[in-house]
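Table S2 (text version). Query chain:
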Amino acid sequence: MRAVVVYAWARSAAGAIVHADGGVEWRHARPVAGEDDPAAVAAALAVAGPDGDVVGLTLGDADASWALARGAARAVRVTDAPASDDEGVTAAVIAAGVRSVADVDVVVVGDSEEHPGVAAAVGARLGWPVVAGVVSAAPSGAGIEAVRRAGDVQETVVVTCPAVLGVAAEGAESRTPGMKEQLAARKRPVVTTTLAELGVDTLPAAVVAGGTRLPEQARTRVFEGEPEQTARQLVAALRAEGVL
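Corresponding structure-token output:
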């Protein structure tokens, strides 16, 4: 089974500065691996099995070796993918990248809380079924048996291939790659491509969200001194404001 795992496809919210007028400034625009990406790689490896093939797919100027150090055999990087917060735009680029890989059985993407609609939008673009909230997955006949969390319970779902899995991490990455894995990752093949080479002439129009101003803050007065003195000051201030 061939699995494509999508990683480092979005900017980190920690790199955003929200100004008082609602405008957002990005200190770091480079896509980085998200909290769910390690779990997505682990699920892709489990689904592909020892005889399968795991291909990484990343966007922009992200570090392509990140998934290679965690077990992916090769990677594809869409170099001119826009750094967009619109999930429809991101899904369109991911779907185009998936189509460039032959004979894909499953696409695995982190089910990010910050971008919850990407996995479903990728499935819609490809016309494949989607299972979101997946915590583990394994091959099952001609399909995949996925365990997903629904509230306080876990459900087991069997889906036929090709399919898209949105994987949600249940905890932090248990083991990060060591120097040996990182050096080996640098030697694994990375194919760079562009939107034009993928046949993407136009992307869907991004939804632009307008910011809102912070509410005006009321003036604050602090009365200092002995209790009787501060009480007199408070009463005088309230009378001056017409409250008393």
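Notes on Table S2: The chain has six helices and eleven strands. The two ends are 78 Å apart (CA to CA).
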